[in-house]
Amino acid sequence: MSTTTDTNEKTDTLGDWEAWQTSFLNEGFTNLRRLAALPFLPEKMARVRKGVTPREIVYEEDRLKLYRYIGEGEIKHKTPLCFVFALVNRPYIVDLKEGRSVVAHFVNAGFDTYLIDWGTPTRAERFLTTDDYVNGYMDNVVNYLRERTGADQVSLLGYCMGGTLSTIYTALHQEKVRNLILLAAGIDFATREGLINLWTDPRYFDVDKFVDTMGNIPADFLQNAFLMLKPIANLIEKPINLMENIHKEEFVEDYLYMETWLNDNIPVPGEVYREFAKYLFQQNLLTKNRLPVGRHTVDLRKITCPLLNLMAKNDDLVPCAQSEPLNDLVSSRDKEKIVWPAGHIGLAVSGKAQKELWPRATEWLAKRSQ
Amino acid sequence: MDQAAAFQKLWLDTFGNVANVWSQFSPGSPPPEEMRRVRGGMLKAMAGAWDEFIRTPQFMEMMKASLNGALDLRRMGREGMNKMHEQFETPSKEDLDSILLAIRHVERRLLDRVEGVGDRVLNISEQLEKLDERLGKMDERIEKLSPGADRPPAAPRKTKAK
Q1: A314-346, pLDDT tens digit by residue?
Q2: Residue A165: inside a domain, yes or no?
Q3: How high does pLDDT run on average in chain A?
Q4: pLDDT on residue A165
Q5: Does B159 have pLDDT greater than 60?
Q6: For residue A130, is it within any domain?
Q7: Domain boundaries along the sequence of chain B
Q8: A234 to chain B, closest Cα gap in Å
């Protein structure tokens, strides 16, 4: 008996030894491949494009540019669709790359699709307020689209802060909005789930002093704040992951596209930042129907159009609890919410969202755009 | 003192959790896979400790103190620069900002006026429409009351095309 056991132990040790050897060899060869891939990284970075769907500028005002996406097929839906992005980042995340473009879904489905690029504010824009963006620029864009397309109303798709702006716009100009689609839009800031909500607590953050000293809020400050939401994942895990997968073509391409966008922050006009921090993050006036925008007060009950509220389950920036209450605050009868298993950016660009969520959203809009 | 304690707790938690991960190291598995597993565990442990720490009031107090310090420093620097600009009679950032602000105020006042005028025009046109309706009804009544009511209505007046 003991001889058999000894043989088994020896075989096990030999098995271990073989597994170790194979593992070391594999790791060694993979490391060589990783090293070989390293010199090509700058070239791949240079190939990153900012937006893939063909487009043309159809309207310009100050720094704002309105793009129209050019599809191959004919336009099937009368109501034009306008993407409204945040003032914090550049908007090409919604048209990131082939197979990861939200815009392409709508263009291919026959929507006359437009996107607002707010541009990069300079010191001259320091005193622009939410009123200027909503009742100025956005209203001008919507009026232009109505005139251009002959449609009475426009569908809006707002992402992140753009979702909040679209909601405010719809509440103030409901007669001009046919459908409202929101992606990870901050509405109810009472929740303390998100770190940004915690950090902007008036006990710890003097927004007036900050804006008065800084003017426009620098892109670096915002970028660092976003990185600090998940310091270990962003500062340690991410570079390790890149080094481990640097020999995988698709991984590197996705990584570079994402990183290019993530590091492409733009400053936020100081007064808009002040209003958002004070009225929304600190006083939560939007849900109380008391948010002042210029001479107007935003009343969410005035929203009556169909609403599709999309949220990301693992969103660190805009937790679901911040978007979800909207469906109960509006007067719309036709309203739907979808909580998608993704993060803030994954909601737009993840493979699963591209395959399942966006065809569903496109269908939702198509039914309501004739 | 609280902040030092919180910071100490963060590192103690981090090291404790990391040590815990290392204690599960199984030398039987091939080292590359095992190291990867341990690394994943370590990062998860560190992320957990940091996630907890950046939500504490102590961290936020630290953040507030460092931000205020940076802002004060910036303000002091700017005041120095302003004095220099004043001596050399050149425009400073604050001068430019005050000009921009003045322009904004003028723009705001003008826009408010335009918006007010727009509202009034809308109001007037609504009243005119109502007046038009009333006049139309009065016209109909006059038509009915006049002796030649059964006569066909006069042809509409032709206007010259421009």
Answers
A1: 998 999 999 999 999 999 999 999 999 999 999
A2: yes
A3: 91
A4: 97
A5: no
A6: yes
A7: 2-90, 91-144
A8: 10
List, for residues A179-229, the tens digit of each pLDDT value.
999 999 999 999 888 888 899 999 999 999 999 999 999 999 999 999 999
Of B32, B46, B97, the CB nearest to A215: B97
Overall number of domains in chain A: 1
This prediction has a pTM of 0.84
Assigned domain for A123 exists: yes
Section A273-292 average pLDDT: 96
The confidence score (pLDDT) of residue B41 equals: 87
Enclosing domain of residue A160: 55-367
Q: Chain centroid to CA A301: how far? A: 26
Contact check, Cβ <8 Å, A123/B96: yes
CATH of the domain at A282: 3.40.50.1820
Say yes or no for a CB contact (<8 Å) between A16 and B28. yes
Distance CA A104, CA A86 (A): 19
Structure tokens that stand for A130 in this block? 């939410």
Q: Which residues contact B7 (CB under 8 A, 6 or more apart)?
A: B53, B58
Q: Kindly state the tokens that stand for B17.
A: 């959790």
Contacts 24+ apart (CB under 8 A), A99-106: A99/A354, A100/A254, A100/A257, A100/A349, A100/A351, A100/A354, A101/A52, A101/A53, A102/A348, A102/A349, A102/A358, A103/A53, A103/A69, A104/A52, A104/A53, A105/A354, A105/A358, A105/A359, A105/A361, A105/A362, A106/A69, A106/A81, A106/A362, A106/A365
CB contact under 8 A, A295 and B115: yes
Q: Which amino acid is at A344?
A: H
Confidence of residue B162 (pLDDT cuts 50, 70, 90): very low
